[in-house]
Amino acid sequence: MPKPENHGTGPEKNDHEPEKIDVSSGFEKSDVKITGILVFITALSIFVVVTAVLCYGIGKVINANMDKEDGPTSKWAKTVDVRQLGNMPNSPDLQNKVAELTQQFPTPRVQLDDGNQDVADLHAHEDLLLDNYSWVDATRSKVRIPIERAMELIAQRGLPVAPAVQTAPLMTGESAPKIQVPLTNGFARTGFEQEEAQTEAIEARQREESK
Q1: Parallel, antiparallel, or unpaired for β 134-137 and 142-144?
Q2: For 4-34, what is the HEC assignment?
Q3: Strand spans (E) along the chain
Q4: Are 121 and 193 in contact (CB under 8 A)?
Q5: What value does the mean pLDDT of the chain take?
Q6: Residue 12 contacts residue 6 (beta carbons within 8 Å)
Q7: What is the pTM of this model?
Q8: For the segment 110-138, what is each residue's pLDDT rounded down to a tens digit?
Q9: Most buried of the four, 21, 63, 94, 130, by CB within 10 Å?
């Protein structure tokens, strides 16, 4: 089969050869093709316009349906600009009612002081139970006595003796547990309660000095 004749002046060009780029100048000589940019901007502009028209039409349809449901405008049904009314005057009765409703609002309530007052109230309730007589079960004549009186009774009568506990012999390498002293009841006042106590002490001292 005869080879095709080459009518060109140079050698036959191979289409698979990579295109050689002249980098001698050090920068791109060709201009940016703005065709794609123009197409994108045009499409975006059309999209924005169409969206605005659709939103305007949907709003008109919704308002027309609302006007149809409300009926014709009359002295009983008309649109009022509430901004012209201004701020409503404060009513002491209304404020007292709001305060009453706020105080009666069921728990859990939003804490305004990080729970400091709740902890102080809890400790005050505990002190009330620890320092006074109170009923545990009136039907069974069970009474809670103050802790100081309970300590006195224990000092007089002693603690009830529990039966001896049989313990297994220690294994090799084990040792009997030792209780470290001093012991504590694990109760401590919070910083909020300590500050309140200091404030009350200062106020009491000032009242005594003023007398």
Answers
A1: antiparallel
A2: CCCCCCCCCCCCCCCCCCCCCCCCCCCCCCC
A3: 134-137, 142-144
A4: no
A5: 78
A6: yes
A7: 0.33
A8: 777 777 888 888 888 888 888 888 888 88
A9: 130
- DSSP letter at 173? T
Strand partners, 137: 142
In the block, which residue shows the tokens 């103050």?
146
Output phi, psi for 132, to 5 deg: -140, 165
Question: Under a CB-based contact definition with an 8 Å cutoff, are residues 93 and 167 in contact?
Answer: no
Dist. CA 189–CA 42, nearest whole Å? 72
The one-letter amino acid at 45: S
3-state secondary structure 85-104: HCCCCCCHHHHHHHHHHHHC
Q: How far apart are the first and last CA of the chain?
A: 134
The Cα–Cα gap between 108 and 115 comes to 12
Domain ranges of the chain: 34-71, 116-158
